[in-house]
Amino acid sequence: MTTAPSSALFDRVALIGVGLIGSSLARAIRRHGLARTIAVADQGEGVAARALALGLCDEAGEDAVAAVRGADLVMLCTPVGAGEAIARAIGPALAPGAIVSDVGSVKARVIEMIAPHLPAGVHLVPGHPVAGTEKSGPESGFAELFEGRWCILTPLPTTDARAVDKVAELWRRVGMVIETMDPDTHDKVLAITSHLPHLIAYTIVGTAADLEDHLSQKVIAFSAGGFRDFTRIAGSDPVMWRDVFLNNREAVLEILQRFTEDLTALQRAIRWGEGDTLEALFTKTRAIRQAVIEAKQA
Ligand SMILES: NC(=O)C1=CN([C@@H]2O[C@H](COP(=O)(O)OP(=O)(O)OC[C@H]3O[C@@H](n4cnc5c(N)ncnc54)[C@H](O)[C@@H]3O)[C@@H](O)[C@H]2O)C=CC1
Ligand SMILES: O=C(O)C(=O)Cc1ccc(O)cc1
């Protein structure tokens, strides 16, 4: 099963967590021949065995320490809340010169949780492939997930530049476009573009579910258009998203404050029949939609 192409970037890649993102990365690494050996560790019940059966890796088990031994790249692909315990456990087993990276949707807290447990000589290169779906588990991954999407790296000023380049090259070879920013900026940007939309979706679907029985059943039966789109997002993994909100608390609360103020202004406009206010906002947002589409096509 081991692939040994001459263009392999890494000798042994250890993926800790082999759900949607870990399994997509395993598939993409295999497809592009980027590692000689892929070892995975996952504590989910039966997940490691399923990853092996799917042919995603050369070795699989529950023990992260065993997976990282001899690895030149360790990629943390678990919900972000698990990062600290994993880093504490694997720290002593990491080879000098090894790179530790991650795919977490939150960056500042992840760095705070992981960095203190890494020995000197091990390079931390935090990252976030901004590509995903509402699905989870090793069966839901696919090699093309990352193609044409952004990968944001948030290295510390002290991070070894060669280590950053190597992680950037990995994501580039699986099709991503690389952007570098500081962790706080990342967390603020993602709070509005990803975390708040998920919170809104969870709220709308929760509100619909709490309607009187006869109404809530009709909502499900006749759900179409907008509401259906929200149910897709609200079907995302509960543990992953619990960890995102707990670990990007400040940025999410700040953006939620602004959002609720804007929502209250809209509520007022509807109450007082201020059609001009509504139409002006909807005209502005339509232009933003157009700009987003054009940016994607560029
Ligand atoms: N789902 C998405 O669309 C995206 C997710 N991310 C980030 O990727 C990470 C993983 O998310 P998904 O792959 O979607 O989740 P997932 O739920 O599909 O996979 C997570 C895996 O981690 C395993 N796991 C949990 N705790 C563990 C531990 N202590 N040790 C070993 N394995 C453990 C679980 O058993 C599961 O198999 C998260 O940090 C998330 O923020 C980043 C981009 C997109
Ligand atoms: O499925 C969707 O619409 C997503 O937004 C996927 C996603 C989830 C989390 C991320 O950090 C990045 C992308």
Question: Any chance you could write out the topology, listing elements then pairs?
Answer:
Layout: E1 10-16, H1 20-32, E2 35-41, H2 47-53, E3 59-61, H3 64-68, E4 73-76, H4 83-90, E5 99-102, H5 108-114, E6 123-125, E7 127-129, E8 150-153, H6 161-173, E9 177-180, H7 183-209, H8 213-221, H9 225-234, H10 238-247, H11 249-271, H12 275-297
The structure holds 1,4-dihydronicotinamide adenine dinucleotide and 3-(4-hydroxy-phenyl)pyruvic acid.
3-(4-hydroxy-phenyl)pyruvic acid binds at residues 105, 130, 132-134, 194, 233.
Protein name: prephenate dehydrogenase
Organism: Rhodospirillum rubrum (strain ATCC 11170 / ATH 1.1.1 / DSM 467 / LMG 4362 / NCIMB 8255 / S1)
Keywords: Amino-acid biosynthesis, Aromatic amino acid biosynthesis, NAD, Oxidoreductase, Tyrosine biosynthesis
Provide a descriptive summary of the structure in words:
It catalyses: prephenate + NAD(+) = 3-(4-hydroxyphenyl)pyruvate + CO2 + NADH. Its EC number is 1.3.1.12. There is one protein chain. The chain is an alpha/beta fold and 298 residues long. The protein has 2 domains: 10-181, Rossmann fold; 185-297, 6-phosphogluconate dehydrogenase C-terminal like domain (6-phosphogluconate dehydrogenase C-terminal fold), CATH 1.10.3660. It is built from 12 helices and 9 strands. The protein has helices at residues 20-32, 47-53, 64-68, 83-90, 108-114, 161-173, 183-209, 213-221, 225-234, 238-247, 249-271, 275-297; strands spanning 10-16, 35-41, 59-61, 73-76, 99-102, 123-125, 127-129, 150-153, 177-180. The chain has a 6-stranded parallel β-sheet. Strands 7-8-9 form a 3-stranded mixed β-sheet, covered by helices on one side. The chain is globular and about 65 Å long. Residues 16-22, 41-44, 47, 64, 77-80, 82, 86, 103-105, 129, 132-133, 136-137, 237, 240, 244 line the site of 1,4-dihydronicotinamide adenine dinucleotide. 3-(4-hydroxy-phenyl)pyruvic acid (ENO) binds at residues 105, 130, 132-134, 194, 233.
